[in-house]
Design a protein that fits this description.
It comes from Persicobacter diffluens. This protein folds into four domains: 228 residues; 58 residues, no CATH class; 92 residues, no CATH class; 145 residues, 3-Layer(aba) Sandwich (Trna Endonuclease, Chain: A, domain 1). The strands form four sheets. The chain has a five-stranded parallel beta sheet, with helices on both faces. It is elongated. 40% of the residues lie in helices and 15% in strands.
Length: 561
């Protein structure tokens, strides 16, 4: 069997070294048949984006047409009518996958270095072109010298495209790989607004004028909202993992994997391999495999089935978002870890400003496009973005659980998510246990263990803070007049069809109180009924009400239901 090109993403190198290559050249045919001038193709990490973009670059390159033609010998594109486009266009190919700087200034400095290198090496022939005027050459010379400002950088795609078009007499192919990598870094390091502003101007200048380019392709992981990045691109078509076009051009299909396993002599392990690395659905194509994982497995069969892709993925953005997820999202995430499929709405694009809210559809969309989930469109759901969502395979299941355990505190230390989930599901004992554990491990910022007496209002404020995530979907009433007194907390859904409700009454144990916490919790519970705190919830039609008396003493707590 030929050598497997693990970690290689340069099409020419793979073909020249006669390494194992799974033919994706009909990507070129589908691209040229597509009506859109510019296409955005988001796919998860390690699914072949850079290799495909490299293939496009070598295929269209007019400057090395004869040299690169043999790279496609024996591939399917040779038999396509689109073969006529081989070697016919100037190409601009940029990758932003390593543009992950800690500051905006560092990112711009690195970008300038990349552009200076390209001007000096790739496009050096433009300095002597008879088709370019003095202003064009002055612009290029300024880049060669490094004497440019941020406005020159923003105009780079437009100006170089224009010059290549003048010189060759045909508009170029423009390829941008991993366009969102610097945006992820900017979000994590706190310079999002500067980077979004730059990328908006940069991409708009390069892609919005339909006469400047023949075709444009942009890849990344996320589909960033048009109003954030692509506001100037009226000719942009987006095809994500949820869409039908290009659904078999990234990742490996079942027939492709079958052939690979046969060539590698491990076809008998097909079912086990599928359980570990199969399971993605892209558009209408089911049983998509992660190429990185399957190639690593075949290359190291003696090591058995284990996680490969998850050990290469950067989860910085997910790390930022998961601790902020609201109660609804938490419930869905933990259902998924149990192997369930869930029906949910997905945000098919990302607005970075909305990530702070960490609502269910935003978080699920982030995990889906990052490769941690897969989804299929529910029949009869019309124009809504409602999908059946699940974890694709055993490999991702291990990573998914580890993510939640790390970032939602779902380990031995109880986090807010477990408290809220058990509360919303009205699981009394689970809530009591979770509250007790949370106070022991996460309540030290009140320093309550060192106080002889802690005001009840501190516990009240603590509970209000825990419930803050619920305010979008629930009414939360604090010290609200109800019946013959003021209940500490009353909670009920804004959805009147949801019959649930909650009434919480708190008691704080005084230093000279000789009774038990359990007795004090029972007194708090009795007060709910004696003073008829249920009246408000019943008035709104909520009948399945959980009443809780909660007694505190330092980090100790007792609950009565």
């Amino acid at each position: 069997m030929k050598r497997l090109p693990i970690g290689q993403s340069d099409f020419r190198q793979i073909r020249n070294e006669d390494a194992y290559y799974i033919d994706k050249s009909l990507f070129i045919e589908e691209l040229m048949h597509n009506h859109a001038q510019t296409l955005l193709l988001p796919r998860p990490r390690r699914f072949g984006k850079t290799l495909n973009m490299s293939m496009l670059s070598y295929f269209f390159d007019i400057d090395h047409a004869e040299e690169y033609r043999p790279l496609f010998s024996g591939l399917a594109i040779e038999q396509s009518e689109e073969w006529q486009h081989q070697g016919k266009y100037p190409v601009i190919f940029l990758t932003f996958k390593d543009l992950k700087m800690a500051t905006f200034e560092q990112a711009i400095s690195k970008l300038l270095k990349e552009f200076r290198r390209d001007v000096s090496r790739k496009y050096s022939y433009l300095f002597t072109s008879n088709q370019l005027d003095d202003l064009d050459k002055e612009y290029l010379m300024n880049f060669r010298k490094g004497e440019v400002d941020i406005f020159d950088l923003e105009d780079y795609l437009r100006e170089v495209s224009k010059m290549l078009g003048k010189h060759h007499g045909i508009a170029p192919i423009l390829l941008i790989d991993e366009y969102d990598a610097p945006i992820h870094a900017a979000y994590e390091h706190g310079y999002l607004s500067e980077m979004v502003g730059f990328m908006r101007n940069f991409l708009s200048a390069g892609f919005k004028d339909k006469d400047l380019i023949t075709k444009g392709v942009i890849t990344g992981i996320l589909r960033v909202a048009k109003e954030d990045i692509f506001s100037g691109l009226n000719n942009l078509a987006t095809y994500t993992v949820l869409n039908y076009p290009f659904s078999d051009k990234f990742g490996l299909t079942q027939p492709e994997v079958d052939q690979l396993l046969e060539d590698a002599g491990c076809a008998e392990d097909q079912q086990k391999i599928a359980e570990w690395y199969n399971g993605y659905t892209f558009g209408q194509v089911e049983k998509i495999y992660n190429p990185w994982s399957i190639l690593n497995y075949v290359s190291n069969q003696k090591e058995g089935l284990k996680a490969h892709w998850v050990n290469t993925s950067s989860d910085g953005l997910i790390k930022e978002i998961l601790p902020k997820v609201n109660a609804k999202a938490q419930e869905l995430l933990f259902d998924l870890t149990e192997g369930k499929s869930v029906k949910a709405t997905i945000a098919d694009h990302t607005i970075f400003q909305d990530l702070e809210q960490a609502e269910a559809e935003t978080v699920l969309g982030l995990l889906l496009f990052s490769g941690y989930l897969t989804a299929s469109h529910l029949p009869h759901s019309g124009e809504t973005l409602e999908y059946n969502i699940r974890i694709p395979n055993a490999e991702v299941q291990t990573a998914y659980k580890r993510l939640l355990k790390r970032y939602l505190n779902a380990s031995e230390t109880v986090g807010q998510n477990e408290l809220l989930t058990s509360l919303l599901e009205q699981r009394q004992q689970t809530f009591a246990n979770a509250l007790s554990e949370y106070l022991k491990t996460s309540f030290s910022f009140f320093d309550i263990g060192k106080r002889r007496s802690v005001p009840e209002k501190i516990y009240h404020a603590f509970m209000l803070g825990l419930l803050a995530h619920l305010s979008r979907e629930y009414h939360i009433r604090s010290n609200r007049e109800s019946g013959y007194g003021r209940a500490d907390l009353i909670i009920y859904p804004k959805d009147r069809d949801n019959p649930k409700g909650w009434v919480l009454e708190f008691k704080q144990k005084d230093a000279d109180d000789k009774g038990t916490l359990e007795k004090l919790a029972q007194e708090a519970l009795a007060q709910i009924h004696e003073k008829e705190y249920l009246n408000e919830i019943h008035a709104h039609g909520h009948t399945e009400v959980m009443c809780m008396g909660i007694a505190f003493d330092g980090k100790e707590v007792a609950c009565a239901f």
